[in-house]
Amino acid sequence: MKAFVTGITGQDGSYLAEFLLAKGYDVWGLIRRSSSFNTGRIDHLYLDPHEQPRLRLVYGDMTDGSNLSSLISEIKPDEIYNLAAQSHVRVSFDQPIYSVNAGALGTLRLLEALRSCNLPIKFYQASSSEMYGKVVETPQSETTPFYPRSPYACAKLYSYWQAVNYREAYGIFACNGILFNHESPRRGETFVTRKITRAATRIKCGLQDRLYLGNLDAKRDWGFAGDYVEAMWLMLQQNQPDDYVIATGQTRSVREFLDEVFGYLDLDWNQYVRIDPRYFRPSEVDLLLGDASKARRVLNWQPRVSFEQLARMMVDADMELARRERVIQNHGKEGAAPWSQ
Questions:
Q1: What is the spatial distance between Cα 221 and Cα 180, in angstroms, rounded to a whole number?
Q2: Which residue, among 6, 54, 61, has the nearest Cα to 27 in the 3D structure?
Q3: How far apart are CA 269 and CA 282, in angstroms?
Q4: CATH classification of 2-187+222-249+290-304, choosing from 3.40.50.720, 1.20.1050.10, 1.10.3430.10, 3.40.50.11550?
Q5: Within 13 Å and on the Cβ side, how many CA atoms surround 270?
Q6: Is the peptide bond before 303 cis (omega within 30 degrees of 0)?
Q7: How much is the pLDDT for 97?
Q8: Are 287 and 180 in contact (CB under 8 A)?
């Protein structure tokens, strides 16, 4: 089996690549050309330089439809997992056109390339709970109406409906995974959960004094990314394509995440956290809570890592980083000239 994964260098892409390789897949990953390598999350997957690699990286971009078409024709994958996007909700307000071009139109380019190649390829689209936005019911399920509240969410909603449209119009095996928030030690450091665990461990190690955040009352359904990539794969193993909510069914506020993280480190976050209006969104999403009963019933999927386990897993990983930083910093001070200390 061959899988083509866009967004492979991101959090979800790295866990999905691990999962698929363990299943015996050959995995092709799309990466953008940049002046520095951004493959840190997947470098460990190249285990033996003398063996034929089962993970191959190819250059491309979601804004280049002809390149995507050429790659699909060349690779002839059995499955495509479209995880690529400008994935930061707050940044999408600052870069709305790029967010939509890479996310929404990128999905359309990929679907059109898939349709044109005329191969029986299964397609997974990474949809998002942010599409529910200003929620009209709680919990949110596959039948809950959408109300997006950011350029990111609007782009994801466009991609969602294009996947449905290509499924119904052209018979493509296309599935939408409506994933609620999922975190891990590989989460980008600008996302609130990782921003918190990174800052808390640095504070514990004496490397940082303050943490600046926005809305502490926003509530999210937080799960572990490693659990959620299994659901992506399960969707494409079914006899019929469909759309699924993937969530834990529990919601916690940012404030509660702070309690868990700082409490684990025996710190009082009130002494270190400050509110900065720059981190508030122009239009906020206050509450997201997913109903994944369909995924449990049809896919036989359920999350394994609890909220508390997730927070502590992230703290443990970031504590290792903070300790290394402290060693490097202390070593630098010891080796510095007297007048520079």
A1: 6
A2: 54
A3: 26
A4: 3.40.50.720
A5: 0
A6: no
A7: 95
A8: no
In the chain, where are the structural domains located? 2-187+222-249+290-304
Q: Give the number of residues written for the chain.
A: 341
Q: Which of 164, 290, 176 is nearest to 236 (CA)?
A: 176
Query: Region 119-133: what's the mean pLDDT?
Result: 96
pLDDT attached to residue 204 = 97
3-state secondary structure of 248: coil
Per the CB < 8 A criterion, the answer to whether 30 and 74 are in contact is no
Closest CA to 100 of 152, 149, 147, 64: 152
- For residue 2, list its beta bridge partners: 26
The Cα 164–Cα 176 span in angstroms is 8
Residues 125 and 113 sit within 8 Å (Cβ to Cβ): no
Which residue's entry shows tokens 């015996």? 24
Predicted structure pTM score: 0.91
User: Residue 256 corresponds to which tokens in the numbers above?
Assistant: 């509660």
The percentage of residues in the chain with a pLDDT greater than 90, rounded to a whole number, is 83
Query: β-strand 219-220 against 252-253: which pairing, if any?
Result: antiparallel
Q: Pairing between strand 273-275 and 211-213?
A: parallel
Which residues are designated catalytic?
A: 128, 130, 152
Q: Which tokens is 112 given?
A: 């059109």
65 phi and psi angles, rounded to 5 deg: -65, -40
Cβ–Cβ < 8 Å for 121, 77: yes
Burial class (CB in 10 A: 0-12, 13-18, 19+), 72: buried
Distance, CA of 290 to CA of 228 (rounded, Å)? 13
Residue spans of beta strands (DSSP E) within the chain: 2-6, 26-31, 55-59, 79-82, 122-128, 173-179, 182-183, 211-213, 219-220, 223-224, 243-246, 252-253, 273-275
The single residue listed with the structure tokens 């509240």 is 149
**pLDDT value for 39:** 81
Neighbours of 24 (CB within 10 A): 8
